[in-house]
User: Which sequence fits this backbone?
């Protein structure tokens, strides 16, 4: 087990994470890395609450400790990037798989002033 998660799961499980106002995150692991395992994600939804007072920058990707520095979706290990998701918006993120073992699913989120950003997704670990 790693961070309370079963490193052997091969079937899809649902996860969620909430980033609240006053609590911005940089390279925050919403799903921990596990040795000798890939992470595959599916059905990720990012929701910015309607009470958020300004657009919120969000980056989602795979990495050991940081999301890759590239600034375009389609670059290896970046699932989604938006410089400002508007208040009340829900975004669907395409499925993805880490390109190397022992990578975490990471997010970087600006402070959602007066609101929150929620992540909901299905994921599984795959053996090499």
Assistant:
């Amino acid at each position: 087990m790693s961070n309370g998660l079963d490193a052997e799961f091969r079937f899809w499980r649902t996860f969620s994470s909430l980033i609240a106002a006053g609590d911005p995150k940089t390279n925050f692991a919403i799903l921990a890395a596990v040795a000798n395992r890939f992470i595959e994600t599916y059905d990720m939804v990012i929701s910015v609450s309607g009470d958020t007072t300004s657009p919120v920058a969000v980056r989602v990707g795979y990495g050991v400790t940081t999301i890759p520095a590239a600034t375009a979706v389609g670059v290896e290990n970046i699932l989604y990037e938006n410089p400002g998701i508007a208040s009340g918006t829900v975004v669907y993120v395409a499925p993805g798989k880490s390109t190397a073992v022992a990578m975490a699913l990471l997010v970087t989120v600006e402070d959602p002033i007066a609101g929150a950003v929620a992540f909901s997704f299905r994921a599984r670990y795959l053996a090499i």
User: Anything to note?
Assistant: Strands lie at 13-20, 25-31, 37-48, 56-63, 78-85, 90-93, 96-97, 104-109, 116-127. The chain is about 0% helix and 50% strand. The first strand starts at residue 13 and ends at 20. Residues 38 and 88 are 32 Å apart (CA to CA).
